[in-house]
Design a protein that fits this description.
- By secondary structure, this protein is an alpha/beta fold.
- The chain is 27% helix and 19% strand.
- It has ten helices and 19 strands.
- The protein has helices at residues 40-43, 59-67, 87-101, 123-136, 183-186, 227-245, 297-314, 347-356, 363-374, 399-404, and strands spanning 3-5, 10-12, 18-20, 24-26, 31-32, 49-50, 71-77, 108-114, 139-141, 145-150, 155-159, 165-169, 172-174, 179-180, 212-214, 254-255, 259-267, 270-277, 332-333.
- The chain has a five-stranded parallel β-sheet.
- Strand 17 and strand 18 form a beta hairpin.
- The longest helix has 19 residues, at 227-245.
- It is globular and about 65 Å long.
Length: 407
Amino acid sequence: CETFDPENSRITLAGGEEIQYDVLVVAAGLVQHFEKVLGLKETLGKNGVASIYSYEFSPNVWANIQSMKGGKAIFTNPSTAVNCGGAPQKICYLAECAWRSAGVRSNVDVGFYTATPGIFGCPSYRVELEKLMAEKGIHAHVKMELVEVDGEAKIATFRADGGELVSKPFDFLHATPPMGAPEFVKRSPLANTMGFVDVDKHTCQHVRYPNVFSLGDCSALPTSKTYSAIASEAPAVVHNVMAMLDGKPEKATAIYDGYTACPILLGQSKLMLAEFNGYSMDATPTFWPVNQGKGWWPFYLMKRFVFEQVYWHFMPLGRWFGKYTIFEPPLQHKRVEKTEPVEAAPRMQQAALKSDVEVKPGQGSSNEASAAAAISPEILGITTPDLPGDVSLAGVLSETAVAELAP
């Protein structure tokens, strides 16, 4: 796809072909921007630098782990949204486990540098992960954004919270690049100010073009961008799309509730199955009373053998529904309030009301400005420096979500 023309329900492909649509579903994923970290793209695959997010150089990650016998190992996490917000940590735990098994762990100084205010968004799991890092001797550094890599000198430069630049030497560097929606989405009329498809966070329906829907990583849904989230978004989108195609737009009310999950590999054949609501950041464990904040080997077996089959053989066919597994979930629906017409007050009453309120010159505009200033993304705990954050949530708050909070 090259361009969107939602006013005329039409898209243009890169080859120039125009396609008309009745309903459009946008699920374009994210783009990895290695070039946005100075020097990173040029040193990938050499000088001890690699990334699991690079199709070309991901094999170098394991090669670098195996060849590491001692020195400083750095793992990074950007402030932007990323595919699977837990993955930058997973590779850190797996590498630490490999070095421990090889008998060289005591020779390796491991550091996890994240640009977010905390190492995980959901408080219940964040606390357990912080304990785990402490137990494994992994040094966590928050509010540290990777901005430059000098591969030859093996120096990684970070921008700290106050703006100062901090340089760290490394022998091993796993870099998670900044990510964002594809350019053809960013520059389109479908995008919000942050470049993501501007949809209602419940129905996944575009806030301005009712025959457009979006799910997955390119959407502005303010939840963690995971496979589990998509599996939970899909049933709502399918229902709403079918309602539109059936000519019953008033029935397009099925909602996605924010559920997401992040299976975090911890090493030693253990896995933390972090299930939570990406909107409220409340833990939503399926296997209660099992403490899913701990690493369990049955969860590892689930990841290793069940999820692999789901990924390749169930989900692509629409046969997997997240926590409901193969069973189609019951749909919740958005309540549509019927508004009754309000009669205007008689002139005498209006005059009486007006006379009761003293309005000084400029007071109204000042109050409006104060209220507007109070409505900011920070109140959701997504970008506020003093609150724990999740990389997968950074930069995805839609203007609509903010507007919903206005008094």
